[in-house]
Amino acid sequence: MADEESRLGIFDAKVPNIARMYDYYLGGKDHYEADRVRAEEAVAADPTLIDLIKENRAFIGRAVRYMAEQGIDQFLDIGTGLPTQQNVHQIAHAVNPDARVVYVDYDEQVVAHGRALLADSEQTEMIHADLRRPAEILDRVRRKQLLDLGRPVGMLTIATLHFLPDEDDPQAIMAELRAALAPGSHLALTHASADGVPDVVAKVVEVYKKTSAPGTPRTREQVTALFGEFALVDPGLVWAPLWRPERHVSMEEAVQTWFYAGVGRKP
């Protein structure tokens, strides 16, 4: 029952929760003993894990700035996780103060924190919905007129899709979401992969099997397919630190960050 409750986003402090573990990795305060214990196990499995998480956050900053500079002024962030520093709306507003941002998460605790954080912002919204039901997300966006899907949108699925097992058919989910977006829309995503350091990733996967959402690493080919008809912008799908880096990053260093990252544009 605990595993099913966690998949449904029902609060249970005794079940290690991936959003709270992520918060712990980033030095936040919204986590419990069960989260800390499992997070430390993951760090023991991969001592570079904290750096990986930070590189993932850094990619968000670069990707959102890039999309905003291309004229994207509305963003849909699915699977946002607990609020941290430099959230999507903060990054986007640094480029365009009028940009609209809608956050989506299936975890009720995440949604509650997000709504509290965004209470004073007219340009941001947090909705409770599940990536596994894309029609539900799109319906709420349209019905509440949160975004104008007739114009380009910047959609993000950051460190989210690898928590969907194959039986949930992430390729079909993403195809439905992509189809709803107007030409000129962008998609930014990161996804775990065992292509670079398979032994390390296997150890971390074993730890996450004991959390609210076990992980499913995928190959470069599988991750590329999630972009569908969206054309990848330079430099394509690469290890996260190599996507338009702001500092020199060696391939040896980058491969330790076993998240692929990329941004695609709908023709």
Task: Write structural notes for this entry.
This protein is an alpha/beta fold and 267 residues long. It has a single domain (2-265), classed as 3-Layer(aba) Sandwich (Rossmann fold), CATH 3.40.50.150. The chain contains 11 helices and 8 strands. Strands 1, 2, 3, 4, 5, 6, 7 and 8 form an 8-stranded mixed β-sheet that branches. Helix 4 (49-69) packs parallel to helix 5 (88-95). It starts with a helix and ends with a strand. The model is unreliable at 1-9 (pLDDT under 50).
| Main sheet summary | 8 strands, mixed
CATH architecture: 3-Layer(aba) Sandwich
Helix share, percent: 40-55%
Low-confidence stretches: 1-9
Distance between the termini: 44 Å
- Report mean pLDDT, rounded to a whole number: 90
| Strands, total number | 8
- CATH names the topology as Rossmann fold
- H/E order of the elements? HHHHEHEHEHEHEHHEEHE
CATH class: Alpha Beta
Q: What is the CA-based Rg, rounded?
A: 17 Å
Strand content: 5-15%
> Which homologous superfamily in CATH is the superfamily?
Vaccinia Virus protein VP39
Helices and strands: which structural class?
Answer: alpha/beta
How would you summarize the topology of this molecule?
Elements lengths: L1 H6 L10 H8 L7 H13 L3 H21 L4 E5 L9 H8 L4 E6 L2 H10 L6 E5 L5 H10 L10 E5 L11 H10 L6 E7 L5 H11 L11 H6 L5 E2 L5 E2 L11 H6 L2 E7 L2
Helix pairs in contact: 2-3, 3-9, 4-5
